[in-house]
Amino acid sequence: MESINLIDSFQEFKDFKNIDRPTVISVLEEVFRSMLRKRFGTDENCDVIVNPDNGDLEIWRTRTVMEDGFSEDDDLEIELAEVQKIDADLEVGDDFIEQITLESFGRRAILAARQTLVSKILELEKDEIFKNYKDRVGEIVSGEVYQVWKKETLVIDDEGNELILPKTEQIPADYFKKGDTVRAVVDKVEMLNSNPKIIISRTAPAFLQRLFELEVPEIFDGLITIKKIVREPGERAKVAVESYDDRIDPVGACVGMKGSRIHGIVRELRNENIDVINFTNNISLYIQRALSPAKITSIKLDDETMRAAVYLKPDQVSLAIGRGGHNIKLAGKLTGYEIDVYRESSEEEEDVDLEEFSDEIDGWIIDEFKKIGLDTAKSVIALSAADLVKRTDLEVETIEEVLGILRSEFE
């Protein structure tokens, strides 16, 4: 027979989609069995043989030789008179084996077979991609940025699969252009209209955890465990770690000599501040560590309402709250307690929070003082105008005006 090598006609498709050859052969065999059923009513008496080495296809059909006039099913039987025109040696009861050529199906049927094969292999490929990435949720993947849109970025992995990085899963400081290499964690895999949709994330806590596993061998080996991670992507993160070996300092191991290990992670996360905290079951101590770098004077816990009242010296309040409130917010998420901050002050030394002057002093000016740890009236008055000019980005006229407003409060 003049062989039409359908396997090789799909070679470029197979290589691109990484479908193994046995799978292609199995699908091809099923496609042609379907064609045989349509043409002959059954494929039970047919053998479809595909050569795995060169892709040649052979189809053999077997029918039983019957006496003339006694054939009841032409698909399974053939009369003696008809078969002896082809092979005179055959007798009643013998098997008549004939080869079915692809050409005999007709051009239209062959084109339909090709289309069916393409469709089935595409379906298999989609299922394979879905299963592969479903098992990789939580793993770091890397790919090349192929297209940047307003709400998402399309990333292509090493095998040509499409990964979606939504804007909501990007660090605020992320900026990508076509051709850039990007690393992210597989966050979610779902089937959408029979197509696998792979969502990757750079903001998920799992991304930070995997980066630590890559940079800190002790975590990868299981000597140090990450108990919990909380993040404000691009701003701040807190990581609670615990060591099962008393000889290993978990915080020191994660940070590395002179910050060598954590610097790479910080760069990957666009200079996100990362606080590594030693985990403890002592809640008071845990909250104290979580609010670092602020130094706490005392803590009162209410385990029923899961609230913690934290008392600090006035100069520590802004450190505990952190820029934009990120520090206290993350400390609450890390410990599971709602944290209320209170300023310690003696009766004879009453102070007033700068926010109380918001009707007289613009908010952005108050923020400038908070940036340098000054959040009360007396903490600002304690410094000279010259010192305040040096430490803030405010004009001397503005500072003198603010000092006048604050001093009038205590006169």
From TrEMBL:
Q: Which Gene Ontology molecular function entries are recorded, alphabetically?
A: DNA-binding transcription factor activity; RNA binding
Broad class of the protein's primary localization: cytoplasm
Query: From what superkingdom does this record's organism come?
Result: Bacteria
Boundaries of each S1 motif domain copy?
138-203
The places in or outside the cell where this protein is found are:
Cytoplasm
Q: Which UniProt keywords apply?
A: Cytoplasm, RNA-binding, Transcription, Transcription antitermination, Transcription regulation, Transcription termination
Identify the HAMAP family for this entry. NusA_B
Q: Subunit arrangement? A: Monomer. Binds directly to the core enzyme of the DNA-dependent RNA polymerase and to nascent RNA.
Q: Family assignment?
A: Belongs to the NusA family.
Q: What does this protein do?
A: Participates in both transcription termination and antitermination.
Q: What is this protein called?
A: Transcription termination/antitermination protein NusA
User: Which source organism does the UniProt entry give?
Assistant: Pedobacter psychrophilus
**Taxonomic classification, please?**
Bacteria, Pseudomonadati, Bacteroidota, Sphingobacteriia, Sphingobacteriales
